[in-house]
Amino acid sequence: MVKVDLNCDLGESFGAYTIGNDEEILRYVTSANIACGFHAGDPSVMRKTVKLALEHHVAIGAHPGFPDLAGFGRRNMAVSPEEAHDFVMYQIGALSAFVQAEGGALHHVKPHGALYNMAAVDASLSEAIAQAVYRVNPDVILYGLAGGELVKAGEKVGLRVASEVFADRTYQEDGTLTSRRLPNALITDDEEAVKQVVRMVKEGKVLTQQGKDISIQADTVCIHGDGAHALAFARHINNVLREEKIEIIAQ
């Protein structure tokens, strides 16, 4: 049977602001990427989200991002590899403390937003991130864009890696995600998004915005937890993957 992990970015509420429906979405995913306080989340939200994930037997990952709460971590920042190494290490350490306190174990690390996208094409940035992950915990899995520099850097440093694909994003011919600043970056039709995922998982192919098929490895599929229909989509994609005889399981 074909297998795939279904992951979701969670723990993005902070202070008086509630984002997403974490507890319900956790029923339909196998791994959770929990915000670490820089782009979203706060200590109380981190603790609560870790506890919920453990209760639902969902694998827990740290989701470090740029220190950009106002921009939700989706704005590129000019940082050195050393700076990226340090704030990634800081965030992993923070989430790891909550996981350990609740009796769990950190499963993976997945950078967020602009940090993730920049690392996908920047070898030096990716190497800094991979080194930070390895130095904190060499046993965790590093999630990175399929075919991107972060996956290569993780393998180089000796980490296990998971090639990630996206349900609701379109692709460019070079394998990168279409920038959110460009038209048609997001797939808003749920059926279209699910069809793309099934094809990536079963056939290892995705149709790019240029109209060309490219090869892609789908170890884990990202769905976003902050959209208006996030819960309904999580339920729907879970059901369709099972109907397609695809086993949903953490890496």
From TrEMBL:
<dbReference type="InterPro" id="IPR011330">
    <property type="entry name" value="Glyco_hydro/deAcase_b/a-brl"/>
</dbReference>
<keyword id="KW-0378">Hydrolase</keyword>
<dbReference type="InterPro" id="IPR005501">
    <property type="entry name" value="LamB/YcsF/PxpA-like"/>
</dbReference>
<comment type="similarity">
    <text>Belongs to the LamB/PxpA family.</text>
</comment>
<keyword id="KW-0547">Nucleotide-binding</keyword>
<comment type="function">
    <text>Catalyzes the cleavage of 5-oxoproline to form L-glutamate coupled to the hydrolysis of ATP to ADP and inorganic phosphate.</text>
</comment>
<comment type="subunit">
    <text>Forms a complex composed of PxpA, PxpB and PxpC.</text>
</comment>
<dbReference type="Pfam" id="PF03746">
    <property type="entry name" value="LamB_YcsF"/>
</dbReference>
<keyword id="KW-0067">ATP-binding</keyword>
<protein>
    <recommendedName>
        <fullName>5-oxoprolinase subunit A</fullName>
        <ecNumber>3.5.2.9</ecNumber>
    </recommendedName>
</protein>
